[in-house]
What we know:
Layout: E1 6-14, H1 18-29, E2 35-37, E3 51-52, E4 62-63, H2 64-78, E5 81-83, E6 87-91, E7 97-101, E8 105-114, E9 118-120, H3 126-130, E10 136-137, H4 140-143, E11 151-155, H5 159-169, E12 174-178, H6 188-195, E13 200-203, E14 206-212, E15 219-224, E16 230-234, E17 237-240, E18 244-246, E19 277-279, H7 291-311
Parallel strand pairs: 1-2, 1-8, 2-5, 8-19, 10-17, 11-12, 11-17, 12-13
Antiparallel strand pairs: 3-4, 6-7, 7-8, 9-18, 14-15, 15-16
Helix pairs in contact: 1-2, 1-7, 5-6
Amino acid sequence: MEQSAIEKVSVLIIGSGPAGYTAAIYAARANMKPVLYQGIQPGGQLTITTEVENYPGYPDGIQGPEMMVHFEKQASRMGADIRYGLATKVDFSSTPHKVWIDEEKEIHADSVIISTGASAKWLGIPSEERLNGYGVSACAVCDGFFFKGKEVAIVGAGDTAAEEAIYLSKLCTQVHMIVRRDQMRASKVMQDRVLNSPNIKVYWNSETDEILGDKKVEAVRIKNNKTGDTQEIPVSAFFVAIGHEPNSTIFKDYVEMDETGYILTVPGTTKTNVAGVFAAGDVQDKNYRQAVTAAGSGCMAALDAERYLTSIGH
């Protein structure tokens, strides 16, 4: 690659949810001239969320996509350079850190803030993909409303699955909850809520065999993994709540992660094991995963990056 094709930046922010945009706001105000690449889903997971009622400062609630437009506008107004593009490769073996965008543009950055977020995990069965958007969803809070007064199924056994099952139980006549083992991973309080909800029926030791329906979800066929018996449950929607996967693959050769791919940061900071590389938001947070905590860690990352650049004389 020709030398002239390389761009040099002080702060490169990868990803554009609440963490990335907040980092951009702080970095721009500190005159660090941040460059932010929005990635595959500009605005992050909030763009597939409808009503956000728990973000401070919005007394009447706000739509997720609209809120992300506000974040982006604020970052732009502060002077952040916001661009379309996906980071496809990195080399953090020496400084400046090298990042390639869309496999072609090479950027050399004195500091990097990783805010690539996480994506919902899927079961990986063909009918799930075929009917995605036609009754199959990974976000009960986003799409439950469309199935008000109907029967639905949800698969998962953690706190998110329990929370979403309870949410759905307030909208739907019956919630069929499919749990793979003979117990849930969810916290005791969440389990109790599920088991005490009269219209949530739990199917233990059960796996999803197939989602049935031609143009839309009409039923789910489940299989008992102890007996091998199958049964079909008529439902109008099928919600997948089996966890999230951090979007961290391209960093794995350089940045320390836990066994599931969440980036490890020094407690109380956004510092990774690589000097000058910071991580904020859901890519390093498997506990809270909220817009407000992501924004908070984006602020921390910008301040950590500013201190780092000062320490190396930039």
